[in-house]
Specification:
By secondary structure, the protein is an alpha/beta fold. The protein is built from two helices and eight strands; from the N terminus they run E-H-E-E-E-E-H-E-E-E. It comes from Dactylosporangium salmoneum.
């Protein structure tokens, strides 16, 4: 089982390492962990995100489904702070913010962002914190 000392790892392609750093560090506030000629690693909300330099693998157009990654916030205040950051730093929004499954047990707020290499990120927060997982 995962402990609080373990980190989830996800890797995505990028066409430009400098743009990835600008978006994730200076846009979203991730911490730069390591940088190499072919990849950059971030502390992304406590987990590990690696952007690999692979322009041929970059999506031509961003789409929400099926491939995206992100964070499900436990607290509404944290989701609200992210929305303020997105607005303040004028980060590229694919869709939202919106409420999905309104009136059901699965009701949650969501926003989809797009990084400079068309990787799609979803940030969300459920009304019922038991549905975070």
């Amino acid at each position: 089982m995962r402990s609080t000392h373990d980190a989830f790892h996800v890797a995505v392609p990028t066409h430009d390492l400098d743009e990835a750093v600008r978006f994730y560090v200076f846009g979203l506030g991730a911490k730069l962990a390591r940088r190499y000629d072919d990849r950059v690693t971030f502390d992304f909300f406590g987990d590990q995100l690696v952007c690999h330099l692979d322009p041929a693998a970059v999506a031509v157009e961003p789409v929400e489904y099926p491939r995206h990654f992100g964070v499900t916030f436990a607290r509404a205040e944290d989701f609200d702070r992210l929305l303020q950051l997105v607005e303040h730093r004028k980060l590229r929004v694919l869709s939202g913010p919106a409420t999905r499954f309104e009136g059901t047990a699965e009701q949650h707020r969501t926003v989809f962002l797009v990084d400079p290499s068309n990787n799609v990120l979803e940030f969300k927060q459920y009304d019922d914190p038991r549905l975070q997982y």
